[in-house]
Amino acid sequence: MQFIIIQTFIRCIINSMDYYQRRYNYEKSFKYPKFITLDESYTEHTDLGAINLVVQTYPIQRPEKREELLLCLHNNLNNKCIKKVYNLYEDNIDFLPECIKNNKKLVNIKIVKDPSQYIHTYVPDFNKTKGGNADIIHHYKYGGIDENTDVTVFQNNIKDRLTWNYFVDFCLNTFKDGEVVCLVNADIIVEDSPEWYEISNFLNENIALCLSRHEMDRQGNTFLDFNVFKCWSQDCWVFKKTEKMRSFKTKIDFSIGNCMGCDNAIAGIAAACNYIPMNYAFKYRIFHLDRVTKLDVKSIILTRTHDNRVIENFAILPILVVCPFLPYDQMMRLPIPQIIKIIRSNNRCGFKEYHEHLQL
After folding, report:
1. Domain around 13
2. What are phi and psi of 162, to 5 degrees?
3. pTM for this model (two decimals)
């Protein structure tokens, strides 16, 4: 009898649209009102939110791309929801403007790895890639790399890269239990919103947010690109720091960013560690600012700095795709096993645009 009641309830919620989906469904393009340009100063906030943002900056030669990454960091530092920004930087921070470098919310920490724990040099194994991931080989060829490339070109190619295990160790050693940790890619702006400000009240040790992105241009105009707002693409992960995070560490480490499949590996690790991975991307919005390198998705270029370990270890790493279109506000009323079942069994967006899940 209880099973029938639960099944009936599930059908009811799947047939109705999530509150936040209804709220943002028709906002095809809109101005983010709190967007600031690099020449605008910060707002002095007296009551900051609970978010500890973790990001990695890196020097980049293309001036237009460097400006985009600075805009993201600049806006995150101006976000009332964010208490501190921990920049685990790669190589140097000489390219940061003084107004950013000296911001009192910014904590700059150089990545320093223990060679016994972290791989500094990674060489792609094309023998593990030839099976179901032949496209990866072509993407490497676009970057001038194939199975005959001299391995010496890869020396120290991920020496200062932020990896998953390094992030877990950093959280365990830095934050107190109960603190909110938000990991983002460098080209992401977290929305300054009431939802994010109250994030601590939503999270617990059983919830992990794995969030797909909205898009943004350099003027702060935001929109949904349904080609990438999908179950297989996330750019932000949020947890409450507890001892439970120790279970996150994996035998196969991988880079966060510039590593195909790392999004789905993080969601899979969370599920394997008894978290509920939720792509609650309509409620907790993030904005992706990349109008330089992501304009032509057909010509993906993989270079010596790309980390292919997730692709090569799909059979070993737990992989999970998490859909942004599930009705999460209503699903939260269900028992945890039922929530996990919905996420695992009915979460593939395919190539649909805006959609609802009508059946389990």
Report:
1. 2-39+46-345
2. -75, 120
3. 0.90
